[in-house]
Protein 1
Amino acid sequence: MVALRAGILVLLASTGCSVFAQVAASAPSLAQRIDEILGRPAAQRSHWGVLVRDLETGATLYERNADKLFVPASTVKLFSTALALNRLGADYTFTTLVVTDGAVDEEGSLQGDLRLVGGGDPNFSARVMPYRNKEEFGPDPLAPVRRLARSIRDAGVQRISGNLIGDDSRYVWQPYPVGWSHADTLQAYGSAVSALVFNDNVVEVQARPGVVGGPARLRIRPSLPVFDLSNRTTTTSGRYVVRRLAARRGESPGELVLAGQIPSRSRGRTFQFAGDDPALYAALALRQALNDVGVKVDGEAEAHHLLPDRLPSLRSRTKRSLRVTGQRLAEANSVQLGEVIRVVNKVSQNLHAEMLLREVALQESGIGSQEAAVTSLRRFLAEIGLQTGEFYLRDGSGLSRHNLVAPTATVRVLEFMWNSLDRETYLDSLPVAGFDGTLDWRFKRTIARGRILAKTGSMSSVLALSGYAEAYPGKTYAFSIYANNFGMSSSSTRHLADSVAAALVVPGPE
């Protein structure tokens, strides 16, 4: 909140404290301002839940349906990142390993398989770290596996006689939490959850016009056989089409169908898809990187999973060692958890949030299952004072439609983190109004710019905004705003929610 307070000092210096105080004294109260916004005809088409609390005094400044349950969308990440910080600590790191049980002979041939073992690192990718707004990834998506490939080569390996195995058995193979839509799982934001994830498990497909009457020109990045891509597109003359480009799963396993029309004058279109098996994707990437540095792999790229039906319980496991066996040939260490949650909250990264939840479960219960993950989250929330009826959570990202949260529960998490030793790390992870993350384009021309740190949330008929607001004169509020079941455009509902949030920083007689 240092930057926010600096903004207030500039504002006071430019307006004069006395003038600002006069404006505050004559302005409507906070409750009146919010009631006016939510009393507008457009707001009547939504189910609203709002709670605002002063963090210094604990006083409730405004509430509307604060004890009712709402679908929270991505504001669930406020809960899961708070849990990760509390249980793992801001300095926690992850390690991705390359190991083998085979031996390297005098000619540099590895007799056996090579295993790429996932350690739960969400950022095993070319992501620019620390987080930078508008500069998310470096130019070479294969950069992290290239570093591993060079280490393997430098260890004396010139040929691998066996297979290259992507091993994600650190977590149980339960790729999709309960309540996720099947349609979401093809999209980058709906990626399967795994302990071994390369490039956010995202495959980018760029479509550009071809010859009129012929198919579009497709470019896959990175160029790996993650999908069997079926190009059923057509290039049309002019600017308009009857049927837009769209993607779907094909009739055979691993097939991705891209169909529809693209105008000859189009500048192109870019799609981002989630691979079906993150561990296999990572193995394919490492095999390509090894080939590029001159190490031949005779076998196939495969995935190894810890399947749930082979375990006696999915809630705890007492006799499991996390030590990875075999000769270690290379490793990649992650950034610290404080940087990991900054990516999660700034860009609302669903996959990373789910991985953090599994890692907490692994450390607490000895098993990285979805059941143990949800149990860890519930236990934490109960410890900090949430009541059972105030929340019902089935994942860590908010993509599940089964999630339900009351504004009172959200504000209680915000209060707990405000008073915790991890306050600054947590605050630094949140989008700043008008500056970065999912709020970089919101509040830009309002008094709230730079004075709200909040997590956004949106899905069909759901909009949410929860976080912290700094108000005159130097007060800080925790707030939660939910809008569900609205029968109008998302942009109109977002405008109303933003107006409520902006009202928190407007000077008033409170």
Note: The chain has a mean pLDDT of 93.
Protein 2
Amino acid sequence: MEESQINNNDIDKLFNKLSKDAELSGYNLNPDTSFTKSLVRGLLVNEKRYGYEACPCRLASGNKQEDLDIICPCDYRDPDLGQYGACYCALYVDESIKSGSKKVMPIPDRRFIRDEEKIDNKNKIGNTDLKYPVWRCKVCGYLCARENPPAVCPVCKAKKERFEIFIGR
């Protein structure tokens, strides 16, 4: 299916899925349905282009490993929601924006932090002698101690590939 073949049924189907998932996980989609559906269309376009739903407001490389941080919901959603009330593309918003008491404002892109500014969690926490590694969902921060990460995050529904080793091996 080409980009031009994305129709309103495709958009409505993904919009409804995202709405349901957001509600079940304690998140809100932007209440401007027309705007939100344009973002959903962008997710579908990127899925057709690259094979994954890269954020429609960022340039994806086409290399899934390089773009894991911008697959929706992106790694930056929760920090952006906490600081600005909306994620970078404004697909997800907090209660104040949903209710109309606050407007979406421009948000700086967190994606390009210099490498030396990144925190190495293993060094910060110190060495531990755990039976299992602790996995962290890079999208929502969910932690679990087990041999392998879960197939899907129970909190935000991000896929297995969005987990990183937080402590351990």
Note: Helices lie at 8-25, 33-50, 64-67, 77-84, 95-99, 121-125.
Protein 3
Amino acid sequence: MSIKEVSSVAPASTIQAKGLPVWKLLAFTMAGFLAIMTETMPAGLLSQIGQGLGVSEALAGQLVTLYALGSVLAAIPVIAATRSWNRRPLFLVAIGGLLVFNSITALSSHYGLTLAARFVAGMSAGVIWGLLAGYARRLVPPPLQGRALAVAGVGQPIALAIGVPLGTWLGMLFDWRGVFWIMSVLALLLFAWVRLGVPDFVGQSAKQRLPVRRIVALPGIRPVLLALFAWILGHNILYTYIAPFLTSVGLGQRVDVVLLLFGVASILGIWITGLRVDRWLRILTLLSLAVFALAALLLGLAGGSPAVVLIGIAAWGLTFGGAPTLLQTSLADTAGDAADVAQSMLVTVFNLAVAGGGMAGGLLLERLGPASLPWALVTLALLALAVVWSAKAHGFRPGHRLAAA
């Protein structure tokens, strides 16, 4: 498999491919994996981090919060401001940000400096997420763009499934600073991989750049973002509080096994999505949300049956694994040349939904108990399903996605 490049900076028209440039796409897989791992792994190291910085575990947990906040605040303005940049240099700056600020985190003994480093690392991750979908799609011709995005996105569910337990395990082998050094080494390797193995693309000219407000107003953008918010909010309401929910149904001692099942099912889901997303984008999105609602219903009606709970968890993971690919593909198709800025909006809405899921789930857990969590998922899944169903003309169009794009 080869990609012809007429210069070191390749306009989209030079990309001719008969298959997927897997090695190049795996650099984006690694970037997504590294960004998520850097965000989630401190959750498994809170005790060590707290002791190392002389703060409580609750304050150590703000390392996760500041990283997410950096992603939310940076994604749209930074991506919008750098649309004229060539894509590879911007991507390298973002990866370099993870390298530098993970290293500062590993070296720092001052809590305030550590929080600042985590915030800027989160900004770097926000730029990575804003670039990833549009950049990966430009590596392949339109008939393969959905599949390319599935390959580039597989690092996300893997990192979500193993980030916390892997951080905990590495913390046992080294200490928490050693874990951050490992993240820095991975960022350095990825920097070299992208610089040497991924082609560059020109940014947008002044004539191509639409104001952000006009991009938001494009037909189909808002339905995709609303479906995204409802889907991710529902997911995080339960995922954030999966331990107390499993305890309530008699599986409190098997949280690791259940999360592994969810992760394996998610990877299977993204594989299935990657095979069919270019032909069945709308059908797959509707089917995923319908099965997601059914899985939540099973969890709500499980009545303490471990078998029913495990079936529900597996179905949940299967449908959620492909969600980022489905939503990113829909948004990129809808936004056209404004795909990078639209993807930065996706990053912002995604992180707001993650934060909202934590807050809403906490309120439900405190006031109504863990049994209420699946029913929130059912409601939000049905809301997202209704949004997708109604967005037939723009956003989630029927038929082969190339015929509609």
Note: The chain has 19 helices and no strands.
